[in-house]
Amino acid sequence: MRWLGYVCCALFCAAAHASPIADGQFGGTAEGYTRQIQILLDLESGPTGVQGAQLWQSVAAGTGNVFVALVLPRTLVDNSYGDNAIGWGSPGSSGTKAPKGKAKGKKAKGKKDGAGKKGKGGHSFRNLLGSDQAQFVFRDGNGDVVLDFVLDYISEIAGGFASGGVTAGDGRVEFGNRDQIVSFGTSLGFNLANHPSFTMNSPPTDPSDSYDNPDPADWIFDVIYEFEIDGAAFGGPTGPGLGSFEIPVVHASPNKLGKNKVFLRVVPEPATLGLFGLGLVLIAAGRRRD
Predict the structure, then answer these.
(1) Which pTM does this prediction carry?
(2) H/E/C letters for each residue in the chain?
(3) Are 121 and 96 in contact (CB under 8 A)?
(4) Less Cβ around it within 10 Å: N or C end of the chain?
C-alpha cells in the first residue's frame, strides 16, 4: 500500500464567507472551498499518471473544522449504470475499453427493480454498491496521526441507499475518534436521496453516449467523497492544528481503466485558487512532517 501525502493549507480567515456543506453535492469555491490540489492517479495494474482527479480543502475560521472533497474523473468511474451507462465497455472519452469486473459483497436485498442488473459494458448499480470506498489519514501539526478512516461510497441502509459513512457498509475507523467526523456525503448518496427510484438504470441523457441533458437535470455523474472533520481532532484553537492528510487508496470496482485499487499522488507545485469573499486572507500554509 502506498502512503502518499498531501501538503495542505492550515489556516484561513473567512470573514463573511460560509463554510462548505459536506453532503456530496460538491460546489467548489462557490460553496466555500478555498484550495484545490491537482492529483494524478496510479492504478493497481496500470496505467499511471491518470489526470482529471481533484482534491479540494478548506479550514473554517474559528472552529478549525476541516472540509475535504475528493472528485474522481469520469474517465475512471462515474455514476452511470445499467442501460444508461456511459463509456463502459466501449471506447469512450478515455479511449479505452472498460473491463467488466465483478462486484463483491452486497446485493440489494428485497429489491426487484433490477438493482443487481449487470448493465451495459458490465457497469451496474450493484458494482457501486458492492465495495467502493476511500481511505483518508490525517496528521496534526506535530506529525501525529489523529484520524485514519475509510469512507463508504454507497450502501443499503434502512430500506434505502446512502453512504454508510464510517459506521456502515464498507466504512470504518482504523484509528481515532469517529465522533470527530462531523458530517459526510457522497454524490451517489445525494443522488438517491433526491431520486430514490434510480437503482436499475441511471438517468437517460441526450445524446445517450454523453453526460449532457440528464433527466433529472440535477443528477451528479462525478464520483465524489466529501466530509467534515472537527477541529478538535487537531487540538482545537490552541493545538498544533492540521498538518497533512493522505489518501492511501481508493477502491473503484470496476473502473474504466484497470483493476480495482487506485492510488493518488499530488501534482508538483499545485496552484492555490483565488479565495472568494471579502476579507478572505491566507494566513498560513500547512506542513507535512515525516
Answers:
(1) 0.80
(2) CCCCEEECEEEEEECCCCCCCCCCCCCHHHHCCCEEEEEEEEECCCCCCEEEEEEEEEECCCCCCEEEEEEECCCCCCCCCHHHCCCCCCCCCCCCCCCCCCCCCCCCCCCCCCCCCCCHHHCCHHHHHHHCEEEEEEEECCCCEEEEEEEECCEEECCEEECCCCCCCCCEEEECCHHHEEEEEEHHHHHHHHCCCCCCCCCCCCCCCCCCCCCCCCCCCCEEEEEEECHHHHCHHHCCCEEEEECCCEECCCCCCCCCEEEEEECCCCCCCCCCCCCEEEEEECCCCC
(3) no
(4) C
- Evaluate whether 226 touches 184 at the Cβ level (below 8 Å): yes
C-alpha cell at 287: 506542513
- Give, in order, the Cα–Cα distances in Å from 218 to each of 190, 203, 264: 10, 10, 28
Contact 122, 99 (CB under 8 A): yes
CA atoms within 13 A on the CB side of 100: 6
Per-residue pLDDT at 265 exceeds 80: yes
pLDDT tens-digit series, residues 38-52: 899 999 988 999 999
pLDDT digits (tens, 9 = 90+) for 105-147: 343 333 333 344 444 566 999 999 988 999 999 999 999 999 9
- Mean pLDDT for 226-241 is 93
